[in-house]
Amino acid sequence: MSEQRQILADTADRLFADAVTSRRIEGFDAKLWQQTIEMGLPLLLAPEADGGAGGDWDDAGAVLHALGHHGVPIPLAENMIAAQLAADAGLELPSGPVSLATRVEGALQQAGTRFDGKLLGVPWGRHADAILAVVPGHTVLLRRTDATSLRHAHNLADEPRDDLIFDNAPAVCGPASDGTQASHLLALARCAQISGALEAALHKSVEYAQTRKQFGRAIGQFQAVQQQLAQFGAEVAAAMCATRAACRAATRGDASFQIAAAKLRCNLAIGFATSTAHQVHAAIGFTREFDLRQSTQRLWSWRTEGGNDRAWADVLGARVCARGDQFWADLTARDDAVSLT
Amino acid sequence: MQTFHFDPVDLPPGIPAFRAEIRAFLAREMPRDYPAEQKANCWTVYDADFSRRLGERGWIGMHWSKTYGGHERSALERYVLMEELLAAGAPVGAHWIGDRQTAPAILRYGSESQKQRHVPRIARGEAFCCIGMSEPNAGSDLASVRTRAERLPDGRWKINGQKIWTTLAHRSHLIIVLARTSPADEKNRHAGLSQFLLEFDTPGLRVQPIVDLVGAKHFNEIFFEDCIVDAECLLGTEGQGWKQVTAELSLERSGPERYLSSIALFFELLRVVGPSPSESVRQAIGRVTAEIWTLRQMSLSVAGQLARGEDPYVEAAIVKDLGNVFEQALPPLVQALADDGIHLEQDSDFVRTLALLLQTSPSFSLRGGTREILRGIIARGLGLR
């Protein structure tokens, strides 16, 4: 990792760690949000010309990994993506928080100045000033206060995932060349958050195994436990490696293949990781008070968000089957392209 | 706690052209009438002619010094060559071990005359090598080897003992033998071991084949009966055998062959199911693709660390463990997908490849360190041991 990116990652990590240590807030951490604005994080992916930080997905991945590791409740991933997509569409971004809607039922009206329809499962919808939504061919910005109805809902980790209904609401829109961009980037962001949360669950489990004593010694000294934690570690390593490779690809260009593969691999890791984390922690891990659920409830939620296994396996499978015996040539060409530049 | 290092790797310039060169060579030089199932687990398939042609081409010992017959190419170019040979299912078994670990061990620890005598022959694809580690009572517990080397008054060594599960010993020219040179000390089990570099025409050395469960003859027992060798056969430093063998195992575990042994079956599956299979098959292929892509990224990352001179000991264990799990999961997965209308008695490329891998893949998590040993290494990396 470059020195500059390491500094960014370390700074974000400290900020999020402090937020968790000083106060565990469910819902939305307004104070932390203000601090991320001071660091330029919500606009990390917007070009400097548009008031952003001009960062890339390697940077964003490092920050979102830290976000997922500490499980802090702010719509940072969504705001980062909204800023990137708004800049791509030539839209001016409101100050925020801006969330992202990838599940949209509805359409633009009156030459793109009005929107009728529903935005479903909008992360931190109730706290967002604006929501960026993608409809076929267009990127649309809507104000939360223009919604006629807002239904509160949550994912398993109590993160807000709200439904908003708009009835002939004012809209600002720009062209979206690639309608799948938003869902790909959301998947990539969730991969980075999943990697962070997996890592946190691993660390908690290893520490717990080193301190919890049964039969006169730390349970981490039993080979049966060591072997489970080793497998857990390998799964975390796979998710982290896949995510970093997909972020690298997104920094360089079209990463649709890599993102689909990374989300599938991250999702796969979640099953073994969460079951092992809870097995090692036993009953204490099942309490409301204990911290482990901050990782595992997010992991179970994020496995669906940004596309579940069936969705991405279908995309990737169809793509590979269509190319048949070109599989290996395609697989290698994606990394070789770097050495051509 | 820093977890593990898997930084993405940028391949050096010139890789696309090199890859094209390898593919053109393979299109021309792959043996004719090569059975499809041989492409599975191809790095144990022996073909001396093919290895010699690779040697002529400069594709053995690619990154070794030119002084000893190497070609001073980059370690990542060598990685690309390996993955291309494996993906094509080329018969690379004859020279694989010499290229991967024996010659690198000689270059690192050997005397000048050992380097001059053996390494150029290995690079030309004329001398093949095998691994003298396992014994009947020393498998995962390698430090318990009982093969003994005793120094004679004239400085020569007398070796007695037995090695087993030695792949391609019956067709090899060289073997590095791990032997005890001073009595076992229960307090320091890793002390008192040394490595010896032996040629197979040494008197007192006898090879006896073992037939595996599919009837193939590739591994062997080796007996050393008062086998007298020159002082110069000691490899490296007397008593440093454990440190040397550990370095050798790092090389043995870190390559792309640890996740690609079953890839031929995936290619067969893609061919058989065609461009638009059922939804369930399509999704299974999508999931397998995600694993292959991830494993390749991990394997490349380890190769990049090795190329920078780092020692990714734990990371290599992770890639081998995940790679072996994948190689072993693929055959039964394909069997489950293909059960409709495909029967194991059928004589087709697809079914023969499946049948071979169903039976041989259980060995993939034994060779080069069992999954339990690897997970012990990973657990140590996590601070649990």
Automatic annotation (TrEMBL), chain A:
UniProt entry keywords in alphabetical sequence: FAD, Flavoprotein, Oxidoreductase
Acyl-CoA dehydrogenase/oxidase N-terminal domain ranges (all copies): 3-86
Every Acyl-CoA dehydrogenase/oxidase C-terminal domain range: 188-310
Gene3D superfamilies documented for this protein: Acyl-CoA dehydrogenase/oxidase, N-terminal domain (1.10.540.10), Butyryl-CoA Dehydrogenase, subunit A, domain 3 (1.20.140.10)
Domain of life per record: Bacteria
Pfam families: Acyl-CoA_dh_1, Acyl-CoA_dh_N
UniProt-recorded Gene Ontology molecular function terms: acyl-CoA dehydrogenase activity; flavin adenine dinucleotide binding
Cofactor(s) needed: FAD
Family from the record: Belongs to the acyl-CoA dehydrogenase family.
Name the UniProt record assigns to this protein: Acyl-CoA dehydrogenase
Species in which this protein is naturally found: Panacagrimonas perspica
Taxonomic path: Bacteria, Pseudomonadati, Pseudomonadota, Gammaproteobacteria, Nevskiales
Automatic annotation (TrEMBL), chain B:
UniProt keywords, alphabetically: FAD, Flavoprotein, Oxidoreductase
Entry-linked Pfam families: Acyl-CoA_dh_1, Acyl-CoA_dh_M, Acyl-CoA_dh_N
Domain Acyl-CoA dehydrogenase/oxidase C-terminal: 279-382
A cellular-component GO term for this protein: plasma membrane
Names of required cofactors: FAD
Molecular function GO terms recorded: acyl-CoA dehydrogenase activity; flavin adenine dinucleotide binding
Record domain Acyl-CoA dehydrogenase/oxidase N-terminal: where: 17-126
InterPro entries recorded: Acyl-CoA_DH_CS, Acyl-CoA_Oxase/DH_mid-dom, Acyl-CoA_Oxase/DH_mid-dom_sf, AcylCo_DH-like_C, AcylCo_DH/oxidase_C, AcylCoA_DH/ox_N, AcylCoA_DH/ox_N_sf, AcylCoA_DH/oxidase_NM_dom_sf
Region forming the signal peptide: none
Acyl-CoA oxidase/dehydrogenase middle domain sequence ranges: 130-227
Stated family: Belongs to the acyl-CoA dehydrogenase family.
PANTHER family hit by this protein: ACYL-COA DEHYDROGENASE (PTHR43292), ACYL-COA DEHYDROGENASE FADE34 (PTHR43292:SF4)
Protein name: Alkylation response protein AidB-like acyl-CoA dehydrogenase
Species this chain originates from: Panacagrimonas perspica
Taxonomic classification: Bacteria, Pseudomonadati, Pseudomonadota, Gammaproteobacteria, Nevskiales
